[in-house]
Write a structure and sequence with these properties.
Number of helices: 17
Number of strands: 6
Order of helices and strands: EHHEEHHHHEHHEHHHHHHHEHH
Helix content: 25-40%
Strand content: under 5%
Distance between the termini: 110 Å
Structural class: mainly alpha
Shape: globular
Radius of gyration: 39 Å
Largest sheet: 2 strands, antiparallel
Amino acid sequence: MDASKPSSYALQPLPVTSGHRFLVPTKRIHDGDDVTFFLSSRAYTDIMTFIFQLNAAMIPRKREEGSIKEWQLQDPEVHHPRVVQDVAKLLESLNAIIDEVPPDPGPRRFGNISFRKWYEMVQERISGLLDRHLPPEISKLGSGEEVPAKAELVAYLVGSFGSSQRLDYGTGHELSFLAFLGCLWKLGAFPETEDGNQERGIVLGIIEPYLQLIRRLILTYTLEPAGSHGVWGLDDHSFLPYVFGSAQFAPAIASPSDIVMEGSCPNAPDPADVAKASAVERERQRNMYFSAIGFIYDVKKGPFWEHSHVLFDISGVKAGWAKINKGMLKMYNAEVLSKFPVVQHFPFGSLFVWEKDPAAAEVAKSVHTSSQPSKATMPSVRVQPPLRDPLGEQGTRAPWAGGSMGGMPPASGTAAPWASRSSSTAATSVPNGPNQPTRAPWASTAPLPPRAGGATTAPAPQAGTTSVQSAVPSTRAPWADRRPPT
């Protein structure tokens, strides 16, 4: 699917019958070849179709009297059906759990470990929360089967709040929440749409509150960016608000077929205003793009062009917000859906299916997917050889290793007074003169080692023997006894 062209059709609800078999979503993407397959799968087609559908609904509309309606945050004219209100209440319940799990006050370098406790509590309560806040015909669907529909909903919803193991959050988790909403759409949870009114309710009534929840999680538990490109990435955590926020400022249309590729809404701010803190503070109250920019201002300091290089470059686009919106759609396809580190954890079940889309064109391998390890090139596990035994090897040996001294070099250095020198070979002679090794004064008597508990003092010389001092060869310089002339 061409990510630069909006889809003229919507994601179709699944004809769920008694014969439909739900599946627990599982990981399918393991290498670069799997990413290539994913880009031609039915799941990818459904995801992009849903994004195009939501994006088109956020573009301003031309009214019959000639006026233009721009969709804003907290817009009273945006209809929120019952299911949108219920999912928003579900997010409020998850938000309230944060109050039950305050951040750990201990020193830390990365994410706060209390996030794991919050995540565990969500896992424990999520099934009951879905039963409470979703229509019974959705939450109980397939309850008599081996795998109910709720199993697929839980997998995507729980996977949308970050990683409790790595204490991070990124666009892959955001994608999981989009899939959760896509599952609800496929299961028929939303009423029939009319000129995008249901989709606008989803974006402004569910996705924006979800983003607010995520921002609170990031600030409360200092979640790390997942797979961030640093200053060379669009945003450390999110992508969708830039897609839908740029659509809010695009030129007005009468229907999705009228979408243009350039221009802006008459009262839209200049894209360059993202670098002006005062303009961001004003616009973040009504627009998702500037709301996301405002969060960057909340958590980062310094010049905008320095810490948000890509967004700063985008602010220089002269062709208007429609051009930016088109670029965001293409960038989402390239930087999120086509990147192995992002989509590798995305699971596939019966609603987002790991099957080839018959209508999809052949997808060529990108430089990124080609650089990922494939199953065919993954190294096999090598059996490690046993650790070598240095005492049992018969390789290169020291010159004295063949003697009967147990492979040890001849003892010619400082030895303990009681060291035994009995062997089958002649003892090595000790050189005389100045090359004489340094020996203890009593070494010539070779006494036995001291008794247990005894002192290690030198034995006194016996009567009739030569003084030990006189037995020690002199090590004085030849001229040491000379006296200077008088």
